[in-house]
Amino acid sequence: MVMGGSTRDATSRYLTPTRRLAVAAVAAAVAIAFADSSIVVLALPNLYGRFATSIVGVSWVITSYNVAVAVGAVALLARRRADPVRLSRIGMGVFAAGALGCALAWTLPVLIAFRCLQGAGAALLLAGGLGLLARLYGSQTRGLIVWTLAGTFGAALGPALGGVATQLFDWRAIFALQVPVAALALLVALRSAPTVIPAAAEKVRVAANAALALVSGALVGALFLAVLLVITVWGLSPIAGAAIVSALPVGALVARRALGPVAPRMAAAVGALLLAAGLMALALLPATSPGLVAAAMALCGAGMGLAVPVLTEVATGADAAAIRSGTATVAARHAGLVIALVLVAPLLSHDLQTGGRNAVLGAAKQLLSADVPLRQEVPIALDLRTTISHAHRGTVPNLAAPFNRHGALQDPRLARLRDGVTGAVQDALTRSFRRSLILCALLAALALIPIALVRWDLAGVPLPLPASAPASASARRRWLTPLAVAAAVALIAVELGLGAPSFGLPRLANPCTTRPGPPGGGINGVVERLARSALDGAACELHTTREQLVLSFVPAAGTHRIRWSRQTIDRALRAGLARAAHTAAGNGLVGNVLAFTLTQLFAPSVEWFLQHAG
């Protein structure tokens, strides 16, 4: 079933049904191998629940695969002779064995080990798959186009496919379903006759590969960070997350159809800009909005669909050395992913700690501003703080539990407060992703430098779509490109207008200024307002905020680990109580005699607070 050498491109358009099935099988294996760079992201919560580890620990399930692919591809570059069929056979067999091992893994180290094996097989599969597709088509150009598009859309579809498999079956299904795909492609390779191709002596196209590495690194923001955000922080189900991230491949497909064919330099530059804009839109989210995430992911997909294929084709070239140069593009893409993951991981870890502190403060603000008795609010605030600080690393704790323990299941007011606090915590943690996403956007913008250095006149890039197009279609494409850029700018402008700069930051009031207390009549309402005013007075005495004061009642719990002695808090609370009574009397709420009486009534509450203090 093998066609020797290369023939006219036109012959590739008239493949027999058997040959078309063979091409589809190999292209599917190539797509899955590229998709595996991010296919397990939507299953990460299931993984760290199954293996009792952290999000950092299970991130090695992704990183180890990409490292293995990059190292394997670099090792292949040293070979002087290449047989695409033999490489495909070995690669598909090893990839299938690794996928089966991942599906059966019983510990995290075992899973990571099999991911490394799978990555090594993927390096061989991807390198050999390019040559095998060219031989099946009888055309180096058509084989390269199919290989490139399979890799582009495979990477874009990866998270969504993994999410669907996890939701319908289990995280193990992600790997189990890959085994028959690789096995079918292996059958095609086994039926193909080996042919050794000497490696050419030409240099690897450095500028194109550098641009490809930067674009691939930037895609960590869309393929990893954005998916992690909607699943881990927002708590969406894998199928819901898959629906949101499906905007990525949709955006890629629409961009390819609407804007192509365009000049290669224009496609690469506009693609990098749209990818950077989409990542900035993800970074500047003004709310926990799945719609805005989907719009930003669509922009990222459009950028990916324009830049990745043309850069891959430029870096590979349509010549006899495509196996070697194609292997170089595999190494560049996965090296970019690994470098970006290495840069993003510590930054995200640090910012999540800061976000956790802001989440506690935001939750305390919501609590202490609610129409709920202070004796209920303070224990819930302390319980929430403990729940967040003791949460498993990389996970979002069950924020409903502290409220439910204190009666939210029976009290509608506490139930509403629980929902508001959960939103405040999600907002703060969402903001924690901001700097990491901006870093990824910067990588996409930096790709413009090597794109400008590519010798496009010598690249010999095959256009991804037929070059002949009606004049009306060409005219439409002239305004579609600026329209896409304008849409990206408009999305970012809308987010800024909706309050993106301050989103996720708790706005804590100055306790030294008078502010209205909770509504309520009778003696209980007056006592509640007096109690909050007393807390403000104590916080003013200690030069902190009401929220930080309450959170510091347990010694190690101040959001900045502030410690005060019992005597210091005693004096501050009593001074705040005296100030509150004086203010109440001055405002005409109660007379001086009643103010004195309320001060005495509130004195036992001071003792109650002190029981929680250090």
List keywords for this structure.
disordered N terminus, single chain, 1% strand, mainly alpha, elongated, 614 residues, two-stranded antiparallel ribbon
Overall description:
α1 packs antiparallel against α5, α5 packs antiparallel against α6 and α6 packs antiparallel against α11. It is built from 26 helices and two strands. With 614 residues, it is mainly α. Helix content is 73%, strand content 1%. It has a two-stranded antiparallel sheet. The protein starts with 16 loop residues before the first helix and ends with a helix.
Q: How far do the termini sit from each other?
A: 80 Å
Mean pLDDT: 77
Number of helices: 26
Q: What general form does the structure show?
A: elongated
Instruction: Give the H and E element order.
Output: HHHEHHHHHEHHHHHHHHHHHHHHHHHH
SS-derived structural category: mainly alpha
Amount of helix: over 70%
Multimerization state:
single chain
